[in-house]
Design goal:
4 helices, transmembrane helix, cell membrane, mainly alpha, transmembrane, about 60% helix, sodium:phosphate symporter activity
Length: about 80
């Protein structure tokens, strides 16, 4: 009940005054965002790629059958049992 009440109160304040928008806008303007050209952009890819490959895998046969027009109506593009 408390969470719904908080959402209703904050949402109504935001709709009336845009207070949260102005607050976050001033906070983000005060932060100096500079891109570091020497940084390694592959850092998150090393962490993300093995996890997503184990959790989310596409069924190539399903994609192929959809492309050929031979797909059943209840076909899924995701493999049912991944290796995680």
């Amino acid at each position: 009940m408390f969470n719904w009440l908080k959402v209703l109160i904050l949402l109504s304040i935001e709709i009336i005054s845009n207070m949260i928008y102005h607050l976050t806008n001033s906070i983000t303007k005060s932060i100096n965002f500079k891109k570091n050209t020497n940084s390694n952009s592959e850092f998150l890819t090393v962490i993300r790629k093995p996890l997503t490959e184990r959790i989310v895998q596409l069924d190539n046969e399903a994609i192929e059958s959809i492309a050929l027009g031979n797909a059943s109506p209840n076909i899924s593009l995701l493999k049912r049992y991944c290796s995680f």
